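S1.2 Input.
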Amino acid sequence: MAKKEEVIHFDAIGRPLKVGDPVACANGKTTLLIGTTTSIGEKQIRVVNFGLPPKSLDAWGEMKINGKLRYSKEVILIGGEDVTMYLLRTIK
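S1.3 Output.
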């Protein structure tokens, strides 16, 4: 069995992405998704909103994977102070 190589993705300006990094990306035409990367695949990464678990139960009791799949060139890695200010503004 062949061993899988570790995939390295880079954001839109060339910085490497890892699982757990805070990122920002487009969510539709007019909204912005700010969240964390929860998994990195061969072609895409999964971005989940802050405050949502990576997996949850749907209405029928079945496991559902939260988040959006995005190509790595569609996301921007954001810094710690940016995330802190966003969370302070949005948490009520």
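S1.4 Remarks. The chain has one domain: 9-90.
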